[in-house]
């Protein structure tokens, strides 16, 4: 066992958190997961990783967990993630993403937790006017989800200045794919992400894929996104812990590869991986979709030494499809 203090992974029973647990344990860290299982599943947490069932909004549970496990670093993945839902239920999003993050940050400051890694999002930028998007671009989120996350970044910045908490906020672009060894993947019962939806269609779990708009000012008229493999993202979190442990600067870091694919290119890749055509129906634009979102990645590469291993659309899609096949086989 390593000499590192334990890492508390909130939301570790969810999609990205489960991959972070794998990356942490492979890097020699002890992890403990806290999750309320609102969207995550107990089965996503390996048997040898301690699991605490409860909410990050529960101060007594947090104080007990931080103390009992000797937590030195918190990775905070727990949250609500569906953008249109955040428009319909803004107060629920501010509660789970902002108020509960406040409770967690406060508990960390009280308990003397040294480091905090936060799951932020490209949604904090809103509709950027320059590509690729740099971390110093204006943050003008266009939905409650993005605002609820940006407020947490602000709380971290202020708590760092006042109380010495060290932090890294990672602004994820489009997270996709699954653990190449098949140990984890995206389970969400109600999928909203493009690659997940296309893979569900490829395994026969849905009839068709709706393509939201082909009249954007892009190379084929469909939106461009920077898809990042979830295992590379998990590695970025480990790199962030090491960076802070080594006395590196606090900050916000984009997490993307710096190049994007159109929706049509993604669907082509899924067809290639599946070896059969998808049924695709072009419908109108989805509200709030920027035409293009691509990360500037210089900062994360320079500061954290992040080295992506799966920067390849076919790999992302192949691992996502393999996971979807496992899910289909398991659930029938
Ligand atoms: N998936 C993406 O494309 C994406 C993009 C940008 C940012 N993010 C952020 O990454 C984080 C993880 O997202 P994900 O895709 O793994 O989602 P997910 O829904 O699979 O995981 C979230 C996990 O948090 C748990 N959770 C929710 N509220 C909780 C609470 N109050 N207390 C304890 N546990 C709670 C859920 O049960 C679930 O296991 C989120 O904070 C999300 O905002 C995700
Ligand atoms: O059934 C679908 C689903 C999506 N899309 C399109 O595919 C692209 C990607 O959409 P999606 O996978 O839903 O991701 P985004 O809307 O780009 O948002 C994701 O990426 C953001 C950061 O960029 C995160 O903040 C969000 O949490 C996360 O949902 C967009 O152009 C969508 O219009 C379709 O055409 N059909």
Q: What ranges have pLDDT less than 50 throughout 5 or more consecutive residues?
A: none
CATH topology of the largest domain: Rossmann fold
What is the β-strand count?
14
Give the C-level CATH assignment of the largest domain.
Alpha Beta
In what range is the share of β-strand residues?
15-25%
Strand order of the largest sheet: 3-2-1-4-5-6-11
Small-molecule components bound: nicotinamide-adenine-dinucleotide, uridine-5'-diphosphate-glucose
CATH 2nd-level architecture of the largest domain? 3-Layer(aba) Sandwich
Overall shape: it is globular
Number of helices: 10
Approximate helicity band: 40-55%
What is the CATH superfamily classification of the largest domain?
NAD(P)-binding Rossmann-like Domain
Largest sheet report:
7 strands, parallel
**Elements, N to C (H/E):** EHEEHEHHEHEEHEEEHEEHEEHH
The value of Rg in angstroms is 19 Å
- The secondary structure category is alpha/beta
Mean pLDDT: 96
| Oligomeric description of these chains | single chain
Q: Supply the number of structural domains.
A: 2
Subunit structure: Homodimer.
Pathway: Carbohydrate metabolism; galactose metabolism
Domain NAD-dependent epimerase/dehydratase: 7-256
EC number: 5.1.3.2
């Amino acid at each position: 066992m390593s000499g590192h203090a334990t890492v508390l992974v909130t939301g570790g029973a969810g999609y990205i958190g489960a991959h972070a647990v794998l990356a942490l344990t492979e890097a020699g860290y002890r992890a403990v997961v806290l999750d309320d299982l609102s969207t995550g599943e107990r089965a996503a947490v390996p048997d040898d990783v301690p699991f605490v069932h409860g909410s990050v909004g529960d101060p007594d549970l947090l104080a007990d967990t931080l103390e009992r496990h000797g937590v030195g670093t918190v990775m905070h993945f727990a949250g609500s993630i569906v953008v249109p839902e955040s428009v319909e239920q803004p107060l629920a999003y501010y509660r789970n993403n902002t108020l509960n993050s406040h409770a967690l940050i406060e508990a960390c400051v009280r308990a003397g937790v040294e480091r905090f890694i936060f799951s932020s999002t490209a949604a904090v930028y809103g509709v950027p006017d320059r590509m690729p998007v740099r971390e110093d671009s204006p943050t003008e989120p266009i939905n409650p989800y993005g605002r609820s996350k940006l407020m947490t970044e602000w709380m971290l910045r202020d708590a760092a200045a006042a109380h010495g908490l060290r932090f890294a906020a990672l602004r994820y672009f489009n997270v996709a794919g699954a653990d190449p060894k098949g140990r984890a993947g995206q389970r969400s019962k109600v999928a909203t992400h493009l690659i997940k939806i296309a893979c569900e269609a490829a395994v026969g779990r849905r009839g068709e894929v709706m393509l939201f708009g082909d009249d954007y000012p892009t190379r084929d008229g469909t939106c461009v996104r920077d898809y990042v493999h979830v295992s590379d993202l998990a590695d970025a979190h480990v790199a962030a812990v090491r960076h802070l442990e080594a006395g590196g600067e606090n900050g916000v870091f984009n997490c993307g590869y710096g190049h994007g694919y159109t929706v049509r290119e993604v669907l082509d890749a899924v067809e290639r991986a599946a070896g059969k055509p998808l049924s695709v129906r072009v419908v109108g634009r989805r509200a709030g979709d920027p035409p293009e979102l691509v990360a500037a990645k210089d900062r994360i590469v320079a500061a954290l030494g992040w080295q992506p291993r799966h920067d390849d659309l076919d790999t992302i899609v192949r691992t996502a499809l393999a996971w979807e096949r496992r899910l289909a086989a398991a659930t029938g």
